[in-house]
Structures
1.
Amino acid sequence: MSFQYPLGLLGLIGVPILILIYIIKSKFTEQTVSATYLWTLSERFLKKKRRDSKIAGLLSLILQILAVVLISITIAHPVFTLKGAANDYYFILDSTGSMQMVSENGKTRFENGKDKIREVIEGSVDGSFYTLVSVSNTTDVLFEKEDNREVALELLNKAEVGYGSANLEEARTKAQAYYQQNKGVRTFLVSDKGFEKGDNIELLNVSDGANNYALLDIEYEHSLLGVLTVSGKAVSYESDDTVEVRLFIDGETKDEYKTVLNVKKAEPVSFTFEVNVEWYDVASVKVMNQDNLMLDNEIIMYNVKSENSYKTLLVSKTPVFMETVVSIVSHAEITVISPDDYLELEKNNDSVIEGYDLYIFHSCNPKAVPRSGSVWFINATSSVENSGFGFQGEVVLKTAETIDKTKNSSTVIRDELLKDVLGEDIYISKYARYDTSNRKFYTLFTYDGDPVIFSGTNMHGNRQVVFAFDLHNSDFPLSADFVTLTKNLLDFSFPAVLDETNYVCGEAAKVNVVSGSENIRVESPSERSSYLSMNEAVGEFLLNEVGTYEIKVTTKDGLKTYRIYSSLPVSEQDPNAEIEKEFSLLGENEGKGIDGFYDKLIVFFICLAVIFVADWMVYCYDKYQLR
Amino acid sequence: MKRTIINEEFLQQVESLQTLIRNNVAGMFGGTHQSKSYGSSCEFADYRDYVPGDDITKIDWNAYARFDKLYQKLYLDERQMHTKIYIDTSRSMEYGRADKAEQALRLAATIAYLSLSEMDKVSIYAIKGATIECVVEGMVGKDSFVNEIGKLNEVEFSGDICLSDAIVPSNVGYGDGMSVIISDFLTDNDYESAINHLADKRRDVFCIQVLSPDELNPKLRGKVHLFDSEDATRIYRKNIKKDIMKAYRKALEFATNRINDLCASRGANYLLVSSEDKMGDVFFGKMVEKEVLK
């Protein structure tokens, strides 16, 4: 306890003075009277006194001393700072992923941390203030300067653990700002991280030596040849151990998908899986050992193209090349019909053909471009309504000639379309000359200045690819660039909603807002929904949970669901790791608590003092005849 | 210590007081008073039945003629009274804020003067211990008062007294006047026997209790150690508060009532006088109220 005005305690000097006066005044004064007869006689008329009469005689003095002491203390304005006094409590609660680790008592570290905070709050006295800051990817103030203990406990109960890594610098900045306002604040850091104790911080560590395994640096690749390669590292943070890692393809595993690793404590061991699989929707690697933090034991890899399954209508008399290559580079559902059948169909349906994501017209000249879906024209020999280009006639070369990779200026789209295309010599013997001046197309290859492979959008706004030559009159299907260019053109025709399906919690995931999308809804692992803005080409959202996020894209053709996996940050996988950086608040702690409830008693103290002073006056009047 | 209480100035005051008394009241007992015994003076007093042996010259024949029964006439006797004044000369009478001794002497002198004015004989006695000392013996007439009363100044107040032990053995007379006792009566010693004895001797007894203001309304508060002026072994040690003051007042009331009741039971007069009271107030106020003066 300290005093705001210590000079007020000088009033205590009055106590010995009071006692001195009492002693002096208490001496018997000798006096001679004419006769003591009446005084002695008065004894007969005196009421019998109680035994405590002597104490009662002193009671007045005791009350007077109390009055002096209380007045002095009241003037000195006591400030209670020791145990049992009110305080301003500031709690920083680590809500990161590692706090989900289950401790020996069956509770998570986060729950244990909340219990420790609860103990402090319940042990505090009335009038204390409480502030709780939850730290994960973001720093959130759950309640500030709450003086109602019950409310504070209720809000504490509602606090939820996050998945990300701790943004402790922001938390420290906030705590420092709060500390600047009140140098008497008691700041607690509740975490499982191995912080060094700094100045003005009380650490409440909730870590324990629980078993913990994790997967690190997971990478995967699915080649065009159908080989899925998954590599990564497994680690045991607590002890040397044997770790079993398994690969799952679409939920199934095999013996060859399993590897057992002998790992030393905190030393990651690499592993690689190479499996032949033409297609998969989801693959995952998983540590099969049980531990106390399961969040980092599994990494799920969604195939970025899994939802890019296209219904393709291939109109061709000789569909072999296209059917094969499209099947290889995409997850297409291909329907093949002959040009005659298509024309008949077009005639019967009044030129309205719908229901496909991609229309490939190989040596077929439809009357009009389909209203929906991307369109590829291969060797169109007449103008097609709404295609954006006009047929100007066939050019037959005397000898096969090579076509040239465009030398037009680089653009983002052209670069994407020609990505990984080597520009090998491609010979053609005949091509169609088209007029593309009415619409902007991206020319990829030319012959003698005429565009022979170009892409763009047709009059319906759908993406369109044009080959001005018949593949059968070219060696193009035999070149390596054919597959690559086809893949690029398919990607162009069906832009991927996701470029990446694996993130770390705390990162921002990117979603391409493809044309035709009406809305994009994101559902978190805890089934919290949010909608992305459709105004930007790329929508972003923060991953603050560990697990699978579903991105549901609604188009006029229906709903497509894409998935990404958010994994636990590496920094959260080993919460027991020593953190050299100490957590401290700058500035000298003044050690002053707050008056809290006692402040309200000051008025009561003053009233008491007034009463006792009055008693003192009456006492003097009665006893010492001060009149 | 010689006093100067009875001086020329005081005597003039007494003279003026006597004049006032004569004009306003019938006077006190004295030489011209009728005695309460029936005698042979010519003033008729009452009748009684005749019994054989009575003086037949005092038979009222007129009454016999009317009532056919013999009645004896009675006459009041007239004689000179002897007023005896006893003054308590203990130490307690001289102690206090206002001197009770002086008041006692003034009272004695004034009563003596008034008695002499009634043609009575007056003697004044000082009670010392268990004896009485004669201060003035058998004064008759105002001349003797002037000559003798100054002796009161020589009365010394000391020691303790016992009224009964002093008065009872003395010659108090019989049915021949008034006995005045002036004292504070603040004693455990017996004084009831003295009053009883005087009453038995058919004396008119008049007890005047003189108390000082310190005794009537003491101002003591707090822790006090009181010594008795007459006897240092008598002490009183208390922390005086309201309750004790209340008890004191009850004790005072008890003590005065005890004398008053005793006097009333013996046909005596009693008067409580403060040592601060003026003579005029005592004689015109209290004595008239008590019907001591008529």
Note: The two ends of chain B are 37 Å apart (CA to CA).
2.
Amino acid sequence: MEMPSPNPAILARKARLAERLLAVLPADAVIQEEAETRAYECDALTAYRCPPLLAVLPRSTQEVSDVLRICHDEGVPVVPRGAGTSLAGGALPTADCVILGVARMNEVLETDFENRIIRVQTGRTNLSVSGAVEEEEFFYAPDPSSQLACAIAGNIAMNSGGAHCLKYGVTTNNLLGVTMVMMDGTVAEIGGAHLDAGGLDLLGVICGSEGQLGVVTEATLRILRKPEGARPVLIGYDSNEVAGACVSDIIKAGVLPVAIEFMDRPCIEACEAFAKAGYPMCEALLIIEVEGSEAEIDHQLGLITEIARSHNPVELREAGDADEAARIWLGRKSAFGAMGQINDYMCLDGTIPVSSLPFVLRRIGEMSKEFGLDVANVFHAGDGNMHPLILFDANKPGDLETCEAFGAEILKLCVEAGGCLTGEHGVGIEKRDLMLHQYSAADLEAQLKVKDVFDPKWLLNPAKVFPLSVTEGRRAVALAAE
Amino acid sequence: MMTPGSEAELAEAIAGASGPLCIQGGGTRGLAVDGEVLSTRGVSGVELYEPGALTLVVRAGTPVAEVEALLAKENQRLAVEPMDHRGLLGTDGAPTIGGVIAANVSGPRRIQAGAARDHLLGVRFVDGAGQVVKNGGRVMKNVTGYDLVKLMCGAHGTLGVLTEVALKVLPRAEAAATVTLTGLDQPGAVRAMSAALGSPYDVTGAAYDAETYQAHIRVEGFRDSAAYRSAELVKLLSPFAMAEVQEDAESLWRGIRDVAAFQGRDGDVWRISVKPTDAVELVPHLEAEALQFDWGGGLIWALVPAGTELRNRINVPGHATLVRAAQETRARLGVFQPQPGPLAAVSDGLRRQFDPRGILNPGLMG
């Protein structure tokens, strides 16, 4: 993966930069020894690593502003970092950058149940936001699989989703306001506890901008009252086509489950071997969850199972109690761990229209033979967000490259089927060079213009999201200005 | 007036424009600026509708009524129940789907389902230089590059003229039930609506009419479920006021959506967005002749004497939009609330990037 070569002029100024940062931050917040900066050399896309020039760990919006103002002055690129769980390399440093980590900013600033909001510092983890309101029976809806570890800052940067977004939406649908520091140190308040921010929807474009427009230090999030109850049903089919048709029929019937998860045979087999959840061995498994009171759940599951039966399932299992519900989810929730036991794997994230599911799965199967690598599919079927897991051996020369080439072909297939490169992980460096498959040069130019406004010197996370060849002119101007 | 018949013709019209353009869908929302009218009405029709994926792709000039009729055939509907401004503003014409999106028009269901922007999956638009741009797509989850979809929604045509929108639609609810609470003052109404919205009963409407002292709480869904939840809400809300269930209250909610209570009455109409509990503190300062709360108190409709500068009276965070007033008042006060310095600078920068000649609805948003 190509990254811009570090600017020697910046490398040479490391001592001066550290000195200036130490003037505005406590000593323990500036990390400059190589043994320690190495902790920030990668995120969850571990195939690529590069220690940053420095890392800083501010504790307040004011400190973030001071850091950015200094880096802006010095012309030093800044790579913001939440918890470092990005699968797309969103927080991958360059050797001449400052990593700005918000992990120490993890306070809950306000909970307000009457207005159904929580205001937090963005270093707080996703799950602990729900944790802060669960005593009052509330929760924060977006639930990415990494929710135990991932930070709200990264959720906002990547517009993270989760299994339950069919009903509750993704981060952008649950974000009401932010405090954001711009690259020149300006602090901006956008939105707040009211439902719609005034003026242009800046909040909408900041969410999902992968840390390229500003550093969000505080966020006002919508919280919801927990439903009275939830229950899953497990349905097995002997073909992907039939499972796909079942999903479509359920949605057409007017039932809106909170989650519809889909696993294919390789995934079922791996999960079963790992978690022993008692899954049936079949071609396609659906886990569908609905919410409400007991009677409402019974009614919705009645409709769902009636539709499911009309497609002749090989297995149909309703959870009778909490234990059985947990067993139904057990295999699905351990899917990634199960894959990790078998092999190294790369997790993709393309989205497709639900109607092209059978075609895309068939093509992935054919491509798997062409590339000689196994692939297992687990995904959010209700919204078409696929997670093909390509298995490879990191110790075998060339295997990673084959895997990446295979992955790129799958993502191109998603775009051709009417979908997109990434549904919830973000572009980062991983899908950067595929952007021209989804967007024309003019489409990308429109996006670049937005960055030109927020960060005219192109210093914030500059080597991400867009093909380097496309941003070269803009980054070069930034360098030449030094 | 220019009425191009396709996206390509619309792009040519913008590229060839020599002065300000007044971008118009149905022209029902009273947002016209000085300039030659560029209508999107000729760019109309359905591109794709997949009921099984809750996805609709439609060209911007398509009338809302056509879209709603199409969806109704499959027992589906628009998620956001957009306001029809014709009654309040005395305009005529047919509202377009592009207008709904350009103005991010969202009705009472906004508190539960989200705003128009939350259901917009993709856009095609023509920027101020005549360049066609697409962003987003037709799938529900998409984080590929910047979300210009959201940016275009609510930009009122100032960053580009929408030619096509992709929407997530929703199943039409089998039934609805409305719990009406009678005899509430404003603080009591906001407390009751907060209690309802903080309950697990999935409330899809919470509004209050300060003239009738009635609050209305709506639930939607399968028939038995709506009945169960409305009964639970009656129990929950009885301590606040006398509570009764109305089964079919479609016209009531249409009236709330369209602010029917203010129709045909003299005065200016403002729309104020605040934190719901702040509504209680704010309202006495407004000195309004009539008030209606939606979104649990988070959206205040105020009828005030013509020419009133209401923004000076707002003492809580939020913003106010001048929805109905004489041209002179609109010019003097501005339709949209001016933004604080850093945001105004960013917004201004975006307008210059997307519309370098400043010809798309100039001055409308700042």
Note: Chain B touches chain A through 87 residues (CB under 8 Å).
